[in-house]
Design goal:
The protein has 609 residues and is of the alpha+beta class. It is built from 18 helices and eleven strands. A four-stranded mixed β-sheet has the order 1-2-6-3. The chain has a three-stranded antiparallel β-sheet with strand order 9-10-11. Strands 4-5 form a two-stranded antiparallel ribbon. Strand 10 and strand 11 form a beta hairpin. Helix 5 crosses helix 8. The protein is globular and about 110 Å long.
């Protein structure tokens, strides 16, 4: 019954592929129609059928039109054929670097009775797919595999096609066990069967060529003639894409359904358990990137063992979540990363690629872009981040004219921040207090030191939502948050224009030719960073600096929540709500109570970054 279902779905996919190819045939027929008319008219003259001055004019006009249409069709066909289809940036895995992994995939393909993938590559994401890299611009072709479509309707004429590349999400290799990875890859590898069919392969090449032609047409260039030519090519390519998009989508659904049906007989029970691990890996990977990796990337450091870090994060998640208690028992089984000869080197390569894709970092290390190991993360990233944020907070307070409120003049203090946000003591120079002419609820229209973050050289911030939701209720906090947000935006724009955050063509490795570095980051991480959240983070950083310099607290790493403060070796878990109370309402009692309990002295100066 399964074989019948596979063949039925494969036949449906082939029918849709033929529908896509009919669109190509119709386009060719339209291009040849003026030429056919011209041939008829030219042949009718000598035979005496179309005689007269009017027919002579028609022959010249039709011939000229046919030549123009054929020329235009030839140019469009050439662009579609030569345009480089988009290829996902990956880390290529040679067979010598992972013989066991290649053996597992080939055994899986043999059991499914489909061609084996031509190569294996890793992507820093929680997904797996097959990718066609047979276009000449993608480099030398990998070994070729014969068509192996089982059942009636296959093409037994010996035609060969290049098997697609199997792209595997690197977090799967480190978190999943070998059996789980095999079960997850089964429906993916099964897709090489329909992919080898000539009609499906031709339809996919046609659609990819049209998509690449649209991308080429988007780059208009400086010459008006070139812009006009590319605009015409793009219009035709988009018209053809719209004509075949429904059939192409249904073809891909049919291919996926046929692959899933074929894979039903392989590790079906284990695949149900493995799918649970896929969801868990996605959750842990997302939190690791946004909570742990992103702060390091913003500082010019890239964690060199992200895949090993996701294992630590997911292990911690399993310990915290009662529903995941059973997941820890599977850790005694062989992890899939053991299929690699040098998992550490591959982890480092995928970690660097993740930094490029999600943040836009350079392709090579340098003084402003260096790797950091997990054991160095607290000191090299967390401590530096807190002190850098605390220094920025005090620079903004200086720009706002907030005077120092203690007798200590040799350094900034936490007391200065607390007194300003709570309104205690003389917080503003030059009588700039609430109610004075220079104070207008944070808009600062009368103060030369405060311009609402829109002064000369500043970068306007794009609101993330309603303006009232973006700022705290406390007027002093609102003014400080707005100015702080403008300062952070200005620094980020400056860093990006300087090349530290990407946006420049970097790297000359083999992967550099597969995509345009000027488009990096391709998949930017954009967690919410409202002005209110920026202020909360900066005040928290100042509290952490005071804790480290006063009571000997140390920075730590929480695999799920990022930077963590350790007091007497214990992670502080109740600091953020206390800081939020201070920022939102100017209520410092919860935070001051905690400071007294821990023994932190707010009036003592701290060291800033």
């Amino acid at each position: 019954m399964t074989g019948i279902g596979v063949e039925a779905r494969a036949q449906g996919a082939r029918a849709r592929a033929l529908a896509v190819l009919r669109v190509r045939s119709r386009a060719l027929a339209v291009a040849l129609l003026p030429a056919a008319a011209a041939v008829i008219l030219l042949a009718g003259g000598p035979s005496g059928q179309f005689v007269g001055h009017g027919w002579d004019i028609a022959r010249w006009v039709t011939s000229a039109l046919a030549a123009l249409v054929l020329l235009a069709a030839g140019v469009i066909a050439l662009v579609v054929a030569r345009a480089r289809p988009a290829v996902t940036p990956t880390v290529a895995i040679a067979e010598s670097a992972a013989p066991d992994l290649y053996r597992l995939v080939r055994d899986l393909a043999d059991r499914l009775d489909v061609p084996a993938p031509s190569a294996i590559a890793l992507t820093p994401d929680c997904d797996s797919w097959l990718e066609d890299r047979s276009h000449p611009s993608h480099g030398p072709p990998p070994p070729r595999a014969r068509d192996e479509i089982a059942g009636p309707g296959h093409h037994p004429h010996g035609r060969t096609t290049t098997a697609p590349v199997l792209v595997i999400g690197s977090p799967f290799l480190w978190w999943m066990r070998v059996g789980e990875l095999r079960a997850v890859l089964a429906p993916v590898v099964a897709g090489t069967g329909p992919s080898a069919h000539p009609d499906i392969a031709a339809a996919r090449r046609f659609v990819r060529g049209l998509d690449a032609a649209v991308a080429v047409a988007a780059d208009r260039g400086r010459s008006p003639g070139l812009r006009l030519l590319r605009a015409g090519i793009g219009r035709v390519a988009r018209l053809l894409l719209r004509s075949c998009q429904v059939h192409a989508a249904e073809m891909e659904r049919g291919v996926a359904a046929a692959a899933a049906e074929r894979a039903q007989a392989v590790d079906y029970g284990l695949r149900i358990v493995a799918q649970e691990q896929v969801g868990l890996a996605y959750a842990g990977w997302d939190r690791l990137l946004t909570r742990v990796a992103l702060p390091a990337w913003r500082m010019g450091r890239w964690p060199s063992r992200l895949d090993a870090g996701v294992v630590a994060a997911l292990t911690e998640l399993s310990r915290r979540d009662r529903l995941a208690d059973g997941f820890t028992s599977r850790l005694g089984e062989r992890p899939a990363c053991d299929l690699l000869e040098e998992p550490g080197a591959i982890d480092e390569a995928t970690s660097l690629l993740a930094a490029r894709l999600f943040h836009g970092g350079p392709a090579e290390t340098g003084p402003d872009w260096s790797p950091v190991a997990w054991q160095e993360y607290p000191e090299e990233v967390v401590d530096r981040k807190w002190r850098t944020d605390a220094a920025r907070l005090h620079r903004v307070l200086d720009a706002l004219g907030v005077r120092r409120t203690t007798t200590h003049t040799d350094g900034p203090t936490l007391a200065r921040v607390l007194n300003h946000l709570t309104g205690e003591g003389p917080a503003w120079d030059g009588d700039q207090s609430p109610g004075s002419t220079a104070w207008d609820g944070g808009q600062g229209s009368g103060s030369p030191a405060w311009d609402g973050g829109q002064g000369p050289g500043s970068t306007p911030r794009t609101p993330f939502g309603d303006e009232d939701d973006d700022l705290p209720h406390n007027p002093r906090s609102a003014a400080l948050a707005t100015r702080l947000g403008s300062e952070v935006a200005r620094e980020e724009v400056g860093g990006a224009s300087g090349g530290a955050a990407g946006g420049q063509p970097v790297g000359q490795g083999p992967e550099a030719a597969l995509w345009d570095d000027r488009a990096l980051p391709l998949f930017p991480l954009q967690p919410p960073r409202t002005d209110r959240e920026l202020l909360t983070d900066h005040v928290t950083a100042m509290v952490c600096c005071a804790a480290m310099d006063t009571v000997g607290a140390t920075p730590g790493l929480d695999w799920l929540d990022g930077p963590a403060l350790l007091v007497d070796g214990e992670r502080v878990t109740d600091l953020t709500p206390r800081v939020l109370s201070l920022v939102e309402d100017g209520d410092a009692i919860p935070l001051r109570t905690w400071l007294v309990e821990v023994g932190i002295r707010p009036e003592k100066p701290v060291r800033l970054g």
